[in-house]
Amino acid sequence: MSKTRRHRVPEKTAVYLNGRLVGYHPDGMNLAKRLRERRRMNELNYQVNIFYNSKLNELHMISDKGRVRRPYVVVENGKSRLTPEILNRVKNNELTWQHLVKMGIIEYLDAQEEENTLIVSNEKDITEQHTHLDVDPANIFGLVASVLPYPEHNSSPRITMACAMAKQSLGIYSTNFTTRYDTRAYAMYYPQEPLVRTNIYKALNLREKAAGQNCVVALVSYHGYNMADAIVINRAAIDRGLARTAMFKTYETEERLYPGGQKDTIELPTAEVVGYRGEEAYSHLDEDGIVIPESKVGSKDVLVGKTSPPRFLEEISVFGAIEEKKRESSLALKPGEEGKVDSVLITEGPSGNRLVKVRMRSVKTPEVGDKFASRHGQKGVIGLLVAQEDMPFTENGITPDLMVNPHAIPSRMTAGHLLEMLGGKAGSIGGKMMNGSAFSGNTEEEYREMMTKAGFEEYGEETLYDGRTGKQIKAKIFIGVVYYQRLHHLVSNKMHVRSRGPVQLLTHQPTEGRAREGGLRFGEMERDCLLGYGASMLIKERLLEESDKTVQLICTECGSTATHDYARNRDLCPICGGENVEPVEMSYAFKLLLDEIKSLYVFPRLLLKKKGGE
Question: Is 229 tagged catalytic?
Fold first, then answer.
């Protein structure tokens, strides 16, 4: 009995305002209907949403901050309120969006009020049950996805990839990039707007910040150099400026203030300064210690000369006099970097001290290993740059800029890529921009008609000739125009090689990471591979000789690590005092482990015997 009473729906509707109970009403559904009518008549604020929960018989009126709301066209009695007459008035600029909201034609719904609605995407599908109509069917896509052409023809993971890569594309990220000092920035030399673009692309005015170029693309394999996802690029196109980019990188330094009232000084360091880098390092600096603009600087060259006060206030010199020795703390280029000094900014920091920013500029020409991607998630790296005379060509003498492997299309199900190729080709022949908006763009039939009119094969296939042999390629090859983006994964920023270099102070092993001129870790799994091959000497070389090999003296009597007494010039065991000491090759990390074990009051002993088990 108590269970049925607990689950019974209350007879009166509880009315909540922003989650706070304000009272009860006999007919909640009717009240919600009347409130919505009031809102559409502009008597209630358009930002208020009304949600009736029939299961709990509750009415929620919500006007909180931070709700995500979407605009919909109101549908009444199976007809859209946005009539052709009103649409014409909008086109003639007689009505604005705000007018439509005030007239109750458009209303914003939040996630809760959407529960009370039945929304239709296309006007022709409206029935009596529908309450709202989508402003545009493409509204199901977010902002970035709406910029991509023909997303409805691609599989969803590829759209996700294309969205992620659109953010990595190099173009004109800001129209005032010449006056900005961003930490790292790229600007493309000749950005273009795509031949196939969407309505959102136009609405966002992205042509002002284009991030790619229209390339003639052939779907054809080329001697295995575009195997898998690699692409082959025409070297002549790159020489003409295809995807050429300038990279800007900002270095900064400040005259720091120290607790004792001392401060750093930006100046040209002299040979007396502790840690002087040598005359060559400061060769690009002006008299004030700051680099001259348009200087060509290389690895470890100083950009701003700076000296700091000594760590300890008084240092007694050889002659007994107290002298203050300055320390060298200049700002220098990182190892492996080079370029030209684009501009120098001398200003004051937040603390009122002198601050210098130096912007470096280097030209990044596409090379083997650089990453490119179309707007359909078809990403790949350059596998080969081919001279124009070795590229395949059409009977009209057109050579493609890019060659993409045709195997990349069917398994990824990116039909949008093919459609954009056809659209780009039709647009470039017809001399006009094409619309690739989702659900409402130009269709394949329109492109085919344009191609036929221009005297081309309707599906964009052409006969190509091999540039090396001059022979006709037997199969017809699909060739068209696609908007390709260069992504900021540049091989010149990632390339890292080391033969010798710095080691860590604690373990004596090579440092880690490209920035620290580190080595590449030879891990456990790599070791397992060599074990499987029985390449024991190679393992020894990688893990010992090339890493942290050290020779330690070991006492043959007690097994502890011994030392060399330089005063008496003899080897001595500090534990037992014996002089029977032998040098033993070991990894420094192992010696460190022995020391750490000793710190736990455990005495590790190394028992020695002759090589060969004697």
Answer: yes
